[in-house]
């Protein structure tokens, strides 16, 4: 092993990291960072701007400054360096809305008995994240993050590299926000998209398609990916962040379904975190996802590249290619139907 020794300070900071998360969640919800966009303000002025109790805001601001999420000169509070770009909602690079996904109530609740999930080898929830009815997926579909945008861009580039033609038929399975299929439709005017997911999620996907001016080019397939009629054949099938919800055996079963609706010469593309290529410290996000899926699902995790190759091979796909996503800790797996 290499690296610095683990200290009491490390122990305390790790044990109390949840408080920093709670601070960020509260500040985003109250729009504290927006209130400081115009420059430093004291606690009373911030309290008036956000419409909250002065004492409560004073305590919150002091704690935010203590952990480095705000600056302070002892009287007034200010945004940290870079905060105007990432924390203020009017910024084109605003990223703080991702807190609702990265540290949402569903994650906090599921991790409350992580030891129990470890003992049992899977979720303690009655209805886990592998179900279309899992409430978190509505929050997921309701917004996109900078990571999702980077992954969607990489997906579109991979499809264009393969020469999809002028009017590809695209299946976005387990579509969530449907960003992947919709971004491709933006780039290829003749493309048509079939979006599959639970009905409650598809309502949000419909809204996104309408806002992008693509409503007339999308067909919706409500239901479970394992048994809903998928139609086809499709030239492109994308399963973004879907296979990690399932064990390798169940993932291979889903891929066999997708193989049946993929046209000869078509491509199935998955997007998500992978493990096994580098030490765990270099794959932090993937291992944290695996931890979350241990608490949320019976058998899901961030699969290794080798596991993806086996799953695709068992489903009859050939020419499996793995591509890193620039600017995000993700990989695309692109497979052609033999």
Automatic annotation (TrEMBL):
It holds the Pfam family Methyltransf_25. It comes from the Bacteria. GO terms for molecular function: methyltransferase activity; protein dimerization activity. Keywords: Methyltransferase, S-adenosyl-L-methionine, Transferase. Residues 13-73 form the O-methyltransferase dimerisation domain. Residues 170-266 form the Methyltransferase domain. GO terms for biological process: methylation. PANTHER family: O-METHYLTRANSFERASE CICE, PUTATIVE (AFU_ORTHOLOGUE AFUA_4G14580)-RELATED. This is Methyltransferase domain-containing protein. It comes from Actinomadura physcomitrii.
């Amino acid at each position: 092993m290499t690296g610095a020794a683990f200290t009491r300070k490390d122990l305390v900071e790790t044990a109390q990291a949840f408080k920093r998360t709670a601070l960020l969640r509260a500040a985003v919800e109250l729009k504290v960072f927006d209130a400081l966009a115009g420059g430093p303000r004291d606690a009373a002025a911030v309290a008036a701007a956000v419409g909250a109790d002065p004492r409560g805001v004073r305590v919150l601001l002091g704690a935010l400054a203590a952990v480095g999420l705000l600056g302070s000169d002892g009287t007034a509070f200010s945004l940290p360096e870079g905060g105007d770009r990432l924390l203020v909602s009017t910024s084109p690079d605003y990223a703080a809305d991702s807190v609702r996904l990265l540290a949402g109530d569903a994650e906090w609740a599921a991790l409350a008995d992580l030891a129990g999930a470890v003992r049992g080898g899977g979720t303690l929830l009655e209805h886990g994240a592998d179900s279309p009815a899992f409430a978190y997926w509505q929050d997921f579909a309701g917004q996109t993050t900078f990571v999702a945008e980077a992954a969607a861009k990489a997906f579109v580039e991979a499809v264009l590299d393969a020469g999809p033609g002028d009017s590809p038929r695209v299946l976005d399975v387990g579509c969530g926000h449907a960003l992947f299929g919709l971004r491709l439709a933006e780039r290829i005017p003749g493309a048509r998209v079939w979006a599959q997911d639970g009905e409650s999620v598809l309502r949000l996907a419909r809204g996104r398609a309408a806002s992008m001016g693509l409503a007339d080019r999308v067909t919706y397939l409500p239901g479970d990916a394992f048994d809903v009629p998928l139609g086809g054949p499709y030239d492109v099938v994308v399963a973004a962040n879907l296979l990690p919800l399932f064990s390798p055996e169940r993932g291979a079963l889903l891929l066999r379904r997708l193989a049946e609706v993929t046209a000869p010469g078509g491509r199935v593309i998955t997007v998500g975190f992978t493990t096994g290529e580098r030490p765990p410290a270099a794959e932090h996000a993937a291992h944290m996802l695996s931890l979350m899926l241990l608490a949320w699902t019976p058998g899901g995790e961030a699969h290794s590249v080798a596991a993806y190759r086996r799953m695709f091979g068992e489903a009859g796909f050939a020419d499996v290619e793995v591509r890193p996503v620039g600017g995000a800790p993700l990989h695309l797996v692109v497979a052609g139907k033999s």
